[in-house]
Write a structure and sequence with these properties.
The chain has about 260 residues and is of the alpha/beta class. It has helices at about 40-45, 55-70, 90-105, 120-125, 195-200, 230-235, 245-250; strands at about 10-15, 15-20, 25, 30-35, 75, 105-110, 130-135, 135-140, 150-155, 160-165, 165-175, 180, 190, 215, 220-225.
């Protein structure tokens, strides 16, 4: 698959859309999929009220807009809906209020992730599940190896396309076997989809670069970049010829292809 024009949505796999906003959508059951919201992040990291709790409201608003636009019947959080179960009473009230606001749009289902901890976030989220199935896809967090032969939709990896320096953009990865939904939290630069570490993390799903499609996401558009193998080839720097002047060759080395 070659790069395509930017759009508000793009098919990642049969029946699965990548949406502007970083959520995914199952077209048959009308389920909105959200990964790694990490509600309450500032409170957990700041020791209980030291930092303004702004990201929870921002992320909840993003989810609400997507749910309303797609007329979602259900919102499934693919794990790490909260950053941790130990947060202040004030932060709990903010998170619970945000979730209650989302329930006005659709039913909520929470898959427990590693950040929900041993309690699985029950005091804040209520009932959680380890995994569930929708439209023939197994929905799970992704921090544990899948059962053999299943096809799944996961979060956990925080996939992103790194653009140089500290700049990166959240990105979906999609194939007929596995779909990875980017993190909604603004506090993670993410795992570079072009890195060998990313492919190693997906090894349990038995996929290769030529089968994975990369779709970057902003709040306004999604940007399909084609297959991961094609994208890596396109971004690979060409080998430059050594400088003719030997005097400078010792200090000005040519870049090498990765």
């Amino acid at each position: 698959m070659r790069p395509a024009a930017a759009a508000v949505e793009f098919p990642l796999a049969p029946g699965v859309l990548a949406l502007a906003s970083g959520c995914a959508f199952l077209t048959k059951s009308r389920v909105l999929l959200c990964a790694d919201a990490h509600f309450g992040y500032e409170d957990v990291m700041g020791g209980g009220g030291a930092l303004p709790l702004w990201s929870t409201a921002e992320i909840a608003a993003t989810i609400a807009i997507a749910a309303q636009r797609m007329q979602a019947r259900e919102i499934v959080f693919l794990g790490d809906a909260i950053h941790g179960s130990q947060m202040s009473d004030g932060a709990i009230r903010v998170v619970v209020a945000a979730l209650d606001g989302l329930r006005a749009h659709a039913a909520l289902t929470f898959i427990a992730g590693n950040h929900e901890g041993r309690t699985r976030g029950a005091a804040i989220l209520g009932t959680t599940v380890e995994q569930c199935e929708r439209d023939g896809w197994l929905l799970l967090h992704g921090d544990k190896p899948p059962r053999a032969g299943v096809r799944g939709i996961i979060g956990h990896l925080h996939p992103s396309l790194h653009l140089g320096g500290d700049a990166s953009v959240p990105a979906f990865l999609g194939s007929s076997r596995v779909v990875v939904v980017p993190a909604l939290t603004p506090y993670s630069g993410g795992l570079d989809v072009l890195s060998d570490d990313c492919l190693a993390a997906l090894a349990p799903w038995d996929v290769v670069r030529r089968d994975l499609h990369v779709v970057a996401a902003t709040n306004e558009r999604v940007f399909p970049f084609g297959t991961l193998s094609a994208l890596r080839s396109a971004l690979r720097a060409p080998v430059r010829k050594p400088l003719a002047n030997r005097r400078f060759r010792r200090t000005l080395r040519p870049d090498r292809a990765s």
